[in-house]
Specification:
Layout lengths: L1 H15 L10 H20 L1 H12 L2 H37 L3 H36 L4 H16 L1 H16 L4 H24 L3 H19 L1 H4 L15 H10 L1 H63 L3 H38 L3 H14 L3 H16 L3 H33 L1 H27 L1
Length: about 450
């Protein structure tokens, strides 16, 4: 009886994972099937806020665009919680599927699902009752307070759709359905553009309209990724599995670096907003907002590469396929370097044209933003490698080193730079902060990899 049950479970695993060919397909085909859609999807998802900024800047002015950036740390915190649970959970699921442990994979997903459900309720209540407090905390001036508060409140209402869209999309990618993430991302951006035009340009709903457009577009992505998760024939779904505190602790720890990345982004945006407000008031915040929007095109592609290779590396790590891990990393490092150098050159050559998309007609703002953007863009040359190594550590379950890398580039050296570099380089020093953080982080990564290599040699 016991043998029969074990054979049945093995057959179920085989049937349920038949779409997952991570261990047999060529690395190049996996990049086309999994990583490239992930990069495109992350790019499309990442520019959701940029679309809001384009419409707000062109139809409501610089102050409205600055209000959206003041509110952006709230969305980063929301995404941080989501990424901790979703990436930590799906990387864990990938390693578990690598050793054909279906039951554990289901329990991991159920733990993720319940954790996000509770988190979304907390976020809705916090945004509804304390949106003004959040806006003030994030540095809103009197002129930006109402707009930032409205945006936070609306985004909070849609937080369950945002959070489950990410979890379901990443899970579908792990079980061999990466096309759903790409389809949903394209649908989201089309819906966001359409709804932003309707709510802002036509109905003139302002910041509430921008929040509604973003929230509804994420809801569409949620619906597109929902079907496989509702099927009991899928390897992981909402019906099977049990919640385990122990598994929750492991996946939270494993995904902590991604959460730190989002939380660090929220904190650094907040600190930058305060700094630019100190130097140039609302115009300074608008300048940083534009550079931040332009940078998102690159950083989302780089993060898309990292998140795309994470389930592949995790699966291979679970299956003990070291040679395929090394080949995957070589592809990814080359890809991220090409993205970084092309993005840096684009800003140096066409920076003014990009800035005019957000602030055409404001010569002083364009001039100030252009000089800062050219300095900021130097960080693209290193950030791709740093992001990728953090994802590599996460995929292997090495959360500590992943946290070290993420916190170094996203928070620790950002804060050190912002409190020291302006003393030596005046206002230019503020723009040098991000490149400075990436350079120091690269040094830390080389040390960690060297240390890890020596440990493996000793074990051998």
């Amino acid at each position: 009886m016991k043998n029969k049950l074990e054979n049945t479970q093995k057959e179920e695993v085989t049937d349920s994972t038949k779409d997952n060919d991570y261990g047999t397909a060529s690395i190049s085909s996996l990049f086309l099937k999994v990583v490239l859609p992930s990069m495109i999807a992350m790019l499309i998802t990442g520019i959701q806020g940029v679309i809001d900024g384009l419409f707000l800047g062109n139809y409501m002015g610089d102050s409205a665009m600055a209000s959206a950036n003041i509110a952006s740390p709230f969305l980063q915190i929301l995404m941080g919680i989501t990424m901790v649970i979703s990436i930590g959970g799906t990387a864990f699921i990938s390693r578990t599927l690598g050793v054909n442990d279906l039951s554990k994979a289901q329990d991991i997903f159920k733990s993720c699902f319940i954790a996000l459900s509770v988190s979304s309720i907390c976020i809705i209540l916090s945004a509804w009752f304390y949106s003004d407090h959040f806006a003030i905390l994030f540095g809103a001036s009197d002129t930006l307070l109402q707009g930032a508060s409205d945006y936070i409140r609306v985004i909070g209402i849609f937080s369950p759709f945002v959070m489950f869209y990410v979890l379901f999309a990443f899970t579908n990618r792990v079980i061999g359905k990466p096309h759903l993430l790409l389809m949903a991302s394209i649908a989201c951006v089309v819906a966001n553009i359409t709804l932003n035009y309707l709510f802002i340009a036509v109905l003139q709903l302002g910041m509430i309209g921008a929040g509604l457009a973003t929230g509804l577009s994420y809801s569409l992505g949620f619906l597109i990724n929902l079907k496989p998760i509702l099927s009991k024939n899928t390897v992981v779904n909402v019906f099977n599995g049990r919640f385990h505190w122990k598994l929750l602790g492991v996946l939270l720890f494993n995904g902590s670096s991604e959460g730190i990345t989002s939380i660090s982004t929220a904190i650094s945006v907040w600190v930058f907003n305060l700094t630019f407000m100190y130097y140039y008031g609302d115009s300074g915040v608008a300048s940083f907002t534009i550079v931040n929007y332009i940078a998102q095109f690159t950083t989302t592609l780089l993060f898309g590469m990292g998140e795309g290779v994470t389930p592949i590396i995790a699966y291979h790590y679970g299956a003990n396929l070291q040679e395929r891990i090394e080949k995957t990393m070589k592809f990814a490092v080359l890809g991220n370097f090409l993205v970084g150098i092309c993005s840096c050159l684009s800003v140096q050559i066409w920076g003014e044209a990009l800035i005019r998309l957000f602030a055409d007609g404001n010569g002083e703002l364009i001039s100030m933003t252009l000089s800062g953007a050219k300095i900021y863009a130097l960080s693209f040359l290193l950030s791709g490698f740093n992001i990728l190594i953090s994802a590599y550590f996460t995929a292997k379950g090495d959360a500590i080193n992943s946290v070290i890398v993420s916190s170094s580039r996203g928070l620790v050296f950002i804060l050190i730079g912002i409190f020291t570099l302006p003393s030596f380089f005046d206002f230019t020093g503020v723009w040098l902060v991000v490149p400075f953080a990436e350079v120091v982080t690269l040094g830390i990564i080389l040390y960690l990899l060297s240390k890890q290599s020596k440990t493996i040699e000793k074990q051998s």
